Amino acid sequence: MSSSVSSIESTTADSGETSAAFKQRFMRRLIAVLIGGMFLDGYILGIIGPVTQKMTDDLGLSTLWVGLIAAAPLFGIFIGSPLGGWATDKFGRKPLFLVDIALFVIASFMQSFAGLVQFFVDSAWQLFFVRLLMGVAIGGEYSIGGPLMSEFAPARLRGRLLGMTLIAWYAGFMFAFIVGHVLVATTDLSWRLILGSSTVIAVALFIARLGLPESPRWLWNQGRRDEARTIAHRYMESASDMTDVEHEDIRKGSFGMLFSRQYWRATLFTSGFWFCAVTPYFAIATFADSVLQQYGLSGGLAGGVGLSALALLAVVITVLLIDKAGRRVLTVPPQWLCAALLAVIGLWAGAPPTVVLILFLAFSFFNAMYTTLTQIFPAEVFPTEIRGIGTGFSAAVSRIGAGLGTFLLPWSMTNLGTSTTMLIAAGVAAVGAGLSQWLAPETKGKSLSETAAGYSH
């Protein structure tokens, strides 16, 4: 190590800025800023369900437009995720996280503007466009935040810390569902104002996301070794993780590497697994009211919140277990179980409503368990030079599934019937289970150098 770098490290050590307490405060801050973005994502996607009926009545929407408007943020995320991933691999985690902060600021103003515009929205395509922009503003979060967290987190806690961001997503989704239902049931507020309530959260995020350092792994990958060592020494807790930074290759990444002989399996697994995990959940959870009503249940706040609350509990349990039990045991068996639960719902046409509700709640619980891994695997199995674009591509593919599920479910329930719709959902879950059975790696406790090399041998 150069004398200048040693001098810098000595200075920071003397000032207490390399202490364990300092590093723990940094990690808590990093978790907090990532949680904020995921909470906002869940909120924007969850708030549409409770106002769907009022919105449909007011604008005279067809089932086609209802699905499109609900899915619009997902299509927006589809655009933002790969762009953010490409940029974060090319220009670095820190500048793109700063750009992402700026985008959130712009998005918050746009969403504030959108909240005002929504007072005057008088057509389906205008509302679709406003919510599409909201999704674009969030898209970069997946492909920037996950890699940044994985590159700072200690290997022994990496799964838990990455999984915690999904707790915020489910909490945001559930909170939006509750807020939306309460406002619809107890006030005369316009559905436009209820949709625009996400602006408050977006503005609050601006304050919380400033001044994070560059990833030492990205710096080493760029050949900036002295800077990488200095930042690793200052912010990383584990000596072995600091040493592992120096195992990074110095090479440029490209989109084509995702489909190379070395990494095509990682790309296939992360994108396919994520697609199959979220497609049934988004469809069922977004329209929980109408789905439950089709089975003779009252739906409403209790049913929708029940689905989300159990999902949130499952994520919490998974986060607590992930670094002890391992990845595969929390990935493969729950997927097969969810496929079976949906198949039973589809095949048992005369099932008592209470049994159907229990099956839906069980599906929501176990689906959330393995969905937690969608925040972990992409950040672990791709190397530093394509970690951003790999995560972004997988997120984009997943949003195709989430968007299609949300878009097609109202049409499918009306035209194909509930049984056929649930059997299709069961088939999607089964495909994901088979893919994971084949390709899901075990990355528990391994360094990022080891996890990224897992598919190349």
TrEMBL record:
One of its GO terms (molecular function) is transmembrane transporter activity. It is a multi-pass membrane protein. The keyword Membrane applies. The chain crosses the membrane at residues 30-52, 64-84, 96-121, 127-149, 161-183, 189-212, 266-288, 300-322, 329-349, 355-377, 389-409, 421-440. It is found in: Membrane. InterPro entries: MFS_dom, MFS_sugar_transport-like, MFS_trans_sf, Myo-inositol_Transporter, Sugar_transporter_CS. Its main location: membrane. It holds the Pfam family Sugar_tr. Residues 30-444 form the Major facilitator superfamily (MFS) profile domain. Keywords: Membrane, Transmembrane, Transmembrane helix, Transport. GO terms for cellular component: membrane. CDD domains: MFS_SV2_like. Belongs to the major facilitator superfamily. Sugar transporter (TC 2.A.1.1) family. This is General substrate transporter. It comes from Methylobacterium nodulans (strain LMG 21967 / CNCM I-2342 / ORS 2060).
